[in-house]
Amino acid sequence: MNLSDFYKAMNAEGVEDILRHFPVRYESLLPSGNPLSPHDGERCVVLGLPFSVHAISPRNTSIIRFKIKSQTAVLSAILFNQPFYLTRLSGKKELLFVLYYSEPRKAFIVHGVHDPDSFYAMTGIRPVYSLPKSVPTSYFTNYLKKMLQSPSEASYLLSPVPRRLQEKYRLLDEKDAYRAVHFPRTEEELKNGLRVFKYEEALSYSVRSLLLKRKADRKKKRRNPPIDHRKINAIVKTIPYRLTQDQLTAIREIVLDMEKERVMYRLLQGDVGTGKTIVCLVCLYANSLRGKQGVLMAPTFELAHQHFRNALLFFKDTPVRLAFLANAASMKAKEKREIEEGLKNGEIDILIGTHAALSEKIQFHDLGLSVIDEQQLFGVEQRDSLLSKGESDLLMVTATPIPRTLSQIINADLDVSTLEQFPQGKRNVKTKVVRSTDPIIDDAIRKCLEVKRQIFVVAPKIDENDKDKANAKSIFKEMCQRYGSENCQLLHGRMKKEDQKEVYDAFLKGDKPILVSTTIVEVGIDVSRAALLIVYDANCFGLSSLHQLRGRIGRSGDFALCLLVYDGRDEESQDKLSFLAGSNDGFQISQYDLKLRGAGSYSGERQSGKSELSVCNFVSDYNIFRCAKEDAKEILESPEERENAEYLSALDRRKEMLLS
Predict the structure, then answer these.
(1) Is there a contact between 643 and 162 (Cβ–Cβ < 8 Å)?
(2) Which of 190, 620, 626, 653 is the most exposed, having the fewest neighbouring CB atoms within 10 Å of its CB?
């Protein structure tokens, strides 16, 4: 492959983009010996001589079967779809094998073959990269070696961090850090190399987050009429159930913030089912009392349309005028033009919709409050886009709550309102990890059908072409055969919006109580009588996603059951699912998930790309963030100082960074 094709495949603009394509993980190549009685999925690293090698190619599949003679045993091994290893395995030379035991095949599946004299085999640490299919790992690592042989004064080998901070934390220089991360010789060297890039990311994130917060703090309102609190109290009394103390406190905090001269920049966080939506609607009503327009934006059509239906009920006895806006494909051009004109001339008080509200064509007459539901699914630049549409207060909402200490790091001291109490008291949802053959699945479905309660069935994939993972279409066919097509529906993101709406409405009414879907139902879908959730291949989902899905059931306060289906033996996956089965605390779950997954959605990902944080983790690297935050404040207090100015200028040039 030529260099131009390589850079294009890597979506890289320069050498630094390649060097900063860090390993996703590291695997040990230290020989572990032969397990005496291996269990399904158990990993081992074995040095041995391959023999009895033979290859077959059934149905366009390459299979190499052979045996490995180690110092202590003879193992049966299988290598799939890598025919180029045939010559190497027949070379009568000892090789280092990475193996995973397969109980059904009574053999070890080969996941790696290495020369015992190679660099990675000798150090015992092998970086594992996520690369495009067109880029061979050998080409990538050889290019890395070549770049790291360049003179140390090369621009991409110079750290942007001010020298005083490099010395303060005794950080390796950039070249040594790159070498330690891509070609580690020891665990200690790897730790010191990662520490450099973790601090760089934490400092960059902290500086940019603080800049965004300061930008919001500097925005003042030219006109901010008073809000009649008596009318807010009056509409709260019309709600057919009693709000929790947390909800009332949050409403008061948000309204008082809206009355301040500076623009509000606040986060409303609460576990699934704690009643965030009604808080948002009350605050949008408060905003209308001061004669200003509001917008409530959700990440999916389904959630946005549900908010619109709820808003129609909430505002039915008020003069508030509502409109719904989704993407162009789901609306007629004339209807969309009328909404655009109504917003511009002030005839519409509250707009509810998807990210279509961010369109440049959408101009508000006097926008006073912007609410972003499931804010972690929107990039930070999108939030900033709303701030730039006027003097609008900004309320971000998330059902992925995090402890206050973490929030202060992630959200740069963002003002936070938290809901911990549930309107119906404690949720009564039991969670179990089961295998796909467990009879509890069939028993639970039939019981729900008997008592006319709805059932969510979720799979990680839509189509049948991925044989390694459960898919919604296959499960839907099976459900129709077992429980009747008159009871089952299929829902996924490739369906037309009108078809999705028809499916959801039938499910909501209970006409077809079994809904087989992808994670399109993860956020906000509110079906109070849903009592059963079955998630197939639950190991494929993050904990926060699973907890969000679990929030779709038991919303009435009645007993509900969540079944996490997993047939594998991977210990990490088992531990993750067992943790979820034993906890209903959204704060604990999100913190555990954040530690497992890294930054991800918490920092706000670009819609098209990677997270700003590739090596740093808010939980496990909390102390690094805490130090970086203080250093960021120091830099921003003296931006004219030479080292600080050079650092801030370097940040602006880094196109891979998120907060621009």
Answers:
(1) yes
(2) 653
* Confidence (pLDDT) at 574: 87
Reported as type and span, the H/E element at residue 205 is: helix 187-218
Task: Count the Cβ atoms, other than its own, within 10 Å of residue 423.
Answer: 17
Are the C-beta atoms of residues 385 and 207 closer than 8 Å to each other? Answer: no
Residues in the chain: 660
Tokens standing for residue 489: 């529906």
How big is the chain by its Cα radius of gyration, in Å? Answer: 28
Tokens linked to 216? 């919001």
Q: State both tokens at 614.
A: 């590739």
Please check whether residue 379 is in contact with residue 604, taking contact to mean a CB–CB distance below 8 angstroms. yes
**Residue 96: closest CA among 29, 28, 43:** 29
How many angstroms separate the CA atoms of 360 and 389, rounded? 9
Check: pTM over 0.90? Answer yes or no: no
Instruction: Give the rounded distance of the alpha carbon of 368 from its chain centre.
Output: 30
What is the DSSP-derived secondary structure letter of residue 53? E
**CB-CB neighbours of 443 under 10 Å:** 10
Q: What would the pLDDT profile of 597-621 be if each residue is shown by its tens digit?
A: 554 434 443 333 345 678 888 778 8
> Pairing state of beta strands 350-353 and 322-325?
parallel
pLDDT in tens, 529-538: 899 999 999 9
Cβ(402)–Cβ(590) below 8 Å: yes
Question: Does residue 361 sit in helix, strand or coil?
Answer: coil
**Token pair 């039939």 is at which residue?**
446
Contact of 308 with 352, CB cutoff 8 Å: yes
User: What are residue 159's phi and psi, to 5 degrees?
Assistant: -75, 140
Query: Tokens for 161?
Result: 């961090």
357 and 302 in contact (C-beta within 8 Å)?
A: no
Residue range 395-423, pLDDT digits in tens = 988 877 777 667 777 776 678 898 988 87
- Please give the structure tokens belonging to residue 475: 């499960």
| Mean predicted lDDT score pLDDT of the chain | 86
228 pLDDT above the threshold of 90: yes
Q: What's the CA gap between 651 and 660, in Å, rounded?
A: 9
Main-chain phi, psi angles of 79, to 5 degrees: -125, 120
Judge contact between 602 and 402, C-beta under 8 A.
yes
- Which H or E element spans position 99? strand 95-102
